[in-house]
Amino acid sequence: MRKVLIAANWKMYKTPAEAKAFIDAFLPLVKDHTRDEIALFPSVTSLATVIAAAKGSNVSVGCQNIHFAEEGAYTGETSANMLTAIGGTHTLVGHSERRQYFAETDEIVNKKLHTALKHGLVPIVCVGEVLAQREGGKTEEVLRTQTVGAFVGITPETAKTIVIAYEPVWAIGTGKTATPEMAVEAHKIIRAEVAKLLGQPAADKMRILYGGSVKPDNASSLLNEVEIDGALVGGASLKPDSFAGIVQY
Ligand code: PGA
C-alpha cells in the first residue's frame, strides 16, 4: 500500500565530477527497478549535475536542507525556490546533523516543512533519539515531541506527500544498526502520534523510513518489515554498487 522509498544522503561528500561518475554507474544498475522509489540527496554544488544526469530516469533528486524563508539575507543558505528552479523535487528536513551541529529546533523544522510543502517539494522529515535518551528510557517521548513539533499546522490534506525518517542518532555512521524490532517499535510510536494529529487514514498512508547504518547486507531484514517503508542511507549510498544493492534488497 505504501511505496517504498530508498534515499541516499551523501552529506558533505562528492565533487560534481564524482557525483556524475556515481550517476553514470548507478543508473544502469537500477534502470528496470520500478518496485521502489529512489532519491538522491547530493550536496548543493552537485545538485544541477545530478539533476541533469538523472533526467528522464527513475531516480529523483533533492536537497539535504532548505531555508524556510522565501529569500533574504541568509548567507550560505538555499531556498526552496532555488531548488525547484533547477528541477529538484525532494528535500530532507531536520536531519539529526542539522539539529546537532546547526542548532535546528523543532520550530525551525516545522517552518522548513511548511516551506517545502508550499513549493511542492517532497519532504523527508527526520526524527530520532540520541543514545542517552534511549538509555534513559526517553525514546518514546523524544519521538512524540519531535513529531508533534514538526507537524504544527499540518493538515491531513497538506500531509499527503510528507515522508518521515526514523533515524536513531546512535546508529548514524556508527555501524550500529537498530534491530528490525527496535525500528518497528519506533515506527509504531511515530505512526500512532501522526494518527493522533491527523487521523488514522493519513497515518496509514504516511511513509516512515528507517535510517542509521543501513547496508546491503542488513537492508532486507529491515525493509521486509511492513512498518518500514524505506531507508535513508548515508555511508553505504556513496558507492553505486552498494546503494544499488540496498535498492534491490
Ligand atoms: P548512515 O547515515 O547510513 O551513514 O548511518 C544515515 C543518515 O544520516 O541519513
CATH class value:
Alpha Beta
> Fraction of residues in helices?
40-55%
**So, the CATH homologous superfamily?**
Aldolase class I
| CATH 2nd-level architecture | Alpha-Beta Barrel
N- and C-termini, Cα separation:
18 Å
- Encode the helix/strand succession as letters: EHEHEHEHHEHHEHHEHEH
Task: Describe the largest sheet.
Answer: 8 strands, parallel, barrel
SS summary, helix count: 11
Tag the structure with descriptive keywords.
single chain; TIM Barrel; 249 residues; alpha/beta; binds 2-phosphoglycolic acid
Structure summary:
The protein has helices spanning 16-30, 47-54, 80-85, 96-101, 106-118, 131-135, 139-150, 180-198, 200-205, 216-223, 240-247; strands spanning 5-9, 37-41, 59-63, 90-93, 122-127, 163-166, 207-211, 230-233.
Structure description:
This protein is an alpha/beta fold and 249 residues long. The protein has one domain: Alpha-Beta Barrel (TIM Barrel), CATH 3.20.20.70. Helices cover 43% and strands 15% of the residues. It is built from eleven helices and eight strands. The chain has helices spanning 16-30, 47-54, 80-85, 96-101, 106-118, 131-135, 139-150, 180-198, 200-205, 216-223, 240-247; strands spanning 5-9, 37-41, 59-63, 90-93, 122-127, 163-166, 207-211, 230-233. An eight-stranded parallel barrel has the order 1-2-3-4-5-6-7-8, surrounded by six helices. The longest helix has 19 residues, at 180-198. The chain is globular. The protein starts with a strand and ends with a helix. The mean pLDDT is 97. 2-phosphoglycolic acid (PGA) binds at residues 9, 167, 172-173, 211-214, 232-236.
